[in-house]
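Protocol step 4 of 6: structure prediction from sequence.
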Amino acid sequence: MGESTIYKNKPMLRYDPTIHHRRSIRLKGYDYSQQGAYFLTLCIQHRECLLGEISDGVMHLNEFGEIVQTEWQASAHIRTEIELGEFVVMPNHFHAIVFINVGATGWSPIPNTNIPVKGPKSASIGALMSGFKSSVTKQINVLRATPRVPVWQRNYWEHIIRDERSMQELSAYIENNPVRWEEDSLFVVR
């Protein structure tokens, strides 16, 4: 099976290791389940303005944007090891600060069975992003009647927040993102 047409007649290419050279964008050797603060960015597939619009520097969420906001807020109730910081839903992307608090779940180690576990490590940033993106995608696709169509780009961007200055700068960036929309590198003129 070659190319298939998906959303808006954009071709979906199958992974071919001879032309696609996927590499991890994560910090090598870093445990993304350890206690800390993280700045996250997720983009909508093809940077489509799917989640609402900005008018006079204010983000107005549509029904899809409301799903993103609701699911993000629910994340802290579903995953007791995390605490949410600043976040903003933008027309074609999402920024957030999240804190992992080790020990909040009463977690106990899984016995070593020497069987490799597929998918992201439990109680990690990867597990949070996987669950969040999946839930949002399923709900949006039900509303627009587009089963199995990607909503998000394949990956997400993360930054480990290492000090108070960085935390303040990133919080201000998130808060001011709607006002600075037309200057944003993710802004797409329609």
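Step 5 (inspection) to follow. The beta strands are 4-5, 11-12, 36-43, 52-55, 58-61, 82-89, 93-100, 157-161.
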